[in-house]
Amino acid sequence: MAYAWLEDLFWLLLVGYGVLTAWHALLYKRDPRAALGWIVTALAIPGIGPVLYWLLGVNRIRTRGRGWQEGGQGLPMRVAQQVDGAGAMVPTALASYRECYAPYLDLAEAVTRRPLLCGNDIEILFNGDGAYPAMLQAVEDAHRHIYLSSYIFESNATGRRFVEALARAVKRGVEVRVLVDALGECYSWPRISSLLHRHNVPVARFLPFSLGGRGMHFNLRNHRKLLVVDGRLGFTGGMNIGDRHLVAGASVGGVKDLHFRIAGPVAGQMRDAFCEDWAFATGERLSPSAVSDDTAGQAICRGISAGPNEDFEKLHWLLTGVLAVARQRVCIMTPYFIPDRGLMTALNSAALRGVEVELLLPERSNLPLVHWASRSYLWELLQYGVRIYWQPPPFDHTKLLLVDHQYSQVGSANLDPRSLRLNFEFNLEIFDAAVNARLAGHFAACRNAARRVTLEEVDGRPLPVKMRDATAKLFSPYL
């Protein structure tokens, strides 16, 4: 009896902890269903419920990203730029698009805080066989600076060719900076950063693992693929650097993908995106680029830098926004497809109002758990008229969105929570009918070689397969 007061105090603290946790969930959980679930859990399971909430229910990804930003550690949210020259031509050049895209243009301007820029030339590069020679030639031709960022930069034969070209650029006095993701570089051995150091190429790793400092993060990865040369020429898309993207003559098929060579003012936005990441990783502030009025082509473009340092899922807002203004067709190609309810609604509502929505996915994925989870979503799209196709091997890593006949979006982001919420991505949106037509031709060729998925096929999966896929779906927010 002497210690009864300690037991009473213990239970009082547990109840207080549960109430405090429920109060936090009530105030900060955006989804009311999630808020109610966590409130009930915190109050109904004293001690354990609150611990589960603080471990699993708090979005530490966005908290850390915002904390770094507010602490002046790079990755700033962009502010709108005042642009003369090429940028001033945008209202006139976009006049023919405004009837369809006016609502989306207002949204994108507010969300991206970057202007659309005229006068860009876009060249489509197929697989590493087309992309790597063009990128290496740009490195060899560089006069002032080379900024390269890649999630995976392998140390195989392809990677070593890039290392040697970068080392030659350093020797002739070009300013070179290379940024590799600390997790992505673990895909090969020796690590590419050690090879670059050995050749005196300045290199930094994005969020290296450590017990102190910024900690151990399997999320918050830099998934961007950027190469910017002399501020006027850029390369971006979905392709990493390594032998796996060499498809022609590959004994095991390789990994198909698209990359893009961009000449024109928007290369400056690509450069700015790299500089933000470099400042975060190293503390070194590279000089910002001036927006040039030199034109190289007809495409109107904007770079989209997205990551968990924002208050909202920027790419998700833009995707749902552009799907809402689609009138004729939507073509999507992605290697990983795990949509949330908002994206599912946007796709289904487009199909129901008569838009031809087509989704092209790999029949075999390099990530089985993601593929199984993806299959559990398909019936909800098929029943409302979305057309879905399985692409045969080799694995296609392309990320592509086409809306009607003028708008294209390409880049590093997949349609899954990791890209849309957890990682740092760079996409490029393009207003240009000629580019859209070339990409639509590629999409059609891939679709014609693919197999259409039917609702009967998805519903007819054996029960064990359905259970496996549904179990994988439970982990969708973390895949």
UniProtKB/TrEMBL annotation:
The gene is cls-2. One of its GO terms (molecular function) is cardiolipin synthase activity. The keyword Membrane applies. This is Cardiolipin synthase. It is an enzyme of class 2 (transferase). Pfam families: PLDc_2, PLDc_N. It comes from Syntrophotalea carbinolica (strain DSM 2380 / NBRC 103641 / GraBd1) (Pelobacter carbinolicus). Its EC number is 2.7.8.-. GO terms for biological process: cardiolipin biosynthetic process. PANTHER family: CARDIOLIPIN SYNTHASE, PHOSPHOLIPASE D.
